[in-house]
Design goal:
It contains 12 helices and 8 strands. By secondary structure, the chain is α/β, with parallel strands linked by helices.
Length: about 325
């Protein structure tokens, strides 16, 4: 297994392994079937592997890249036994993701120096775990020593504001809100004004999870940004898209639509603990060239991790 940095402890690795268990078992079972009775990696195994990855929601384009890399590796190394396949997969998938330069530079729940407050605008459709992710982020940033504030700019659903309030209480951070149906940009303005007045380090703004009208969504998010910039000129510093990993290929489609609608620059992929579709993280990481910054691995307030590609791939394809 990989080496643990000071930011990636044994406990975090155990949480990652546990959270990816359903995906890992599903992938291993398929790979074991693909190589049954084979002593070397031949064309039949490669064809079977292609099917394994596609049915594991890695996606067609990324699957073809992985198969091509394995094929070239086998040709270069001349003889590669099927028992070495997991090691090869670890190495080649990690290298593929590294070539895309798509891992966040963030090592842990720290914030970049040079501006204050650090403003994160969170987008995503309803039901993907957006508000839950905000609550977990608030907890993690606060635990790292930051003063955190939340803005309830999803003003179209009473449940969204109530849920954010609950998470604010759990994390022990203030939530700025207005009445139901209020202008989301006004909520964002109030939140940043309060954050500056109270010397807040991190501001996280929730937004409405509607996607049926991309122009409407883009106009609304643009308005929120423009209003925030009256208080913090370079806000938001992050536009974080939350995707539900358990939806597999639907997460790809949501990513396409949101990336087209606004300038998303970070991704969070949630609900990986309850699905065998964790391979979607590999495909989304490869296809969108946008850093996967966080992964959700459970219901607990601690079960949100900064994404580290090497440890993630090792959890899926390392020794059983």
């Amino acid at each position: 297994m990989g080496f643990f940095s000071k930011f990636f402890s044994k406990e975090k690795k155990e949480t990652l392994d546990k959270g990816l268990e359903r995906t890992k078992q599903g992938v291993f079972a398929k790979i074991a079937h693909a190589i049954a009775g084979k002593s070397t990696i031949d064309d039949e195994i490669l064809d079977n592997l292609e099917e394994v990855f596609i049915t594991s929601d890695v996606g067609v384009e990324t699957t073809l890249k992985i198969i091509d890399r394995i094929q070239k590796r086998v040709a270069r190394d001349k003889y590669v036994g099927s028992e070495e396949l997991n090691r090869l997969l670890c190495e080649e998938i990690t290298d593929l993701l590294a070539e895309n330069n798509n891992e966040s530079s963030l090592e842990d729940f720290t914030i970049p120096a040079g501006h204050k407050p650090h403003v994160i605008m969170v987008v995503g459709v309803n039901g993907v775990g957006k508000t839950t992710t905000i609550g977990k982020l608030a907890h993690q940033f606060k635990a790292a020593g930051n003063k955190v504030m939340l803005g309830a700019a999803d003003t179209f659903r009473a449940a969204a504001v109530e849920q954010l309030d609950v998470w604010g209480e759990r994390a022990g951070v203030p939530v700025i809100k207005q009445k139901l149906g209020a202008d989301p940009a006004s909520v964002a303005y109030d939140t940043l004004s309060s954050a500056v007045a109270n010397d807040i380090d991190v501001v996280i703004i929730d937004t409405a999870g509607r996607l049926h009208n991309k122009k409407g969504l883009m106009d609304e998010l643009t308005k929120i940004k423009n209003v925030m910039q009256k208080i913090v000129p370079d806000a938001p510093h992050e536009v974080l898209l939350v995707l539900d990993g358990s939806t597999g290929q639907n997460a790809f489609e949501q990513a396409k639509q949101f990336v087209a609608a606004t300038n998303v620059n970070e991704l969070a992929i949630t609900k990986l603990d309850g699905t065998a579709k964790g391979g979607v993280v590999i495909g989304i990481s490869d296809q969108f060239k946008i850093p996967v910054k966080y992964i959700g691995l459970g219901e607990g307030i601690e079960d949100l991790q900064v994404f580290h590609k090497k440890e993630f791939v090792e959890s899926l394809f390392g020794k059983q």
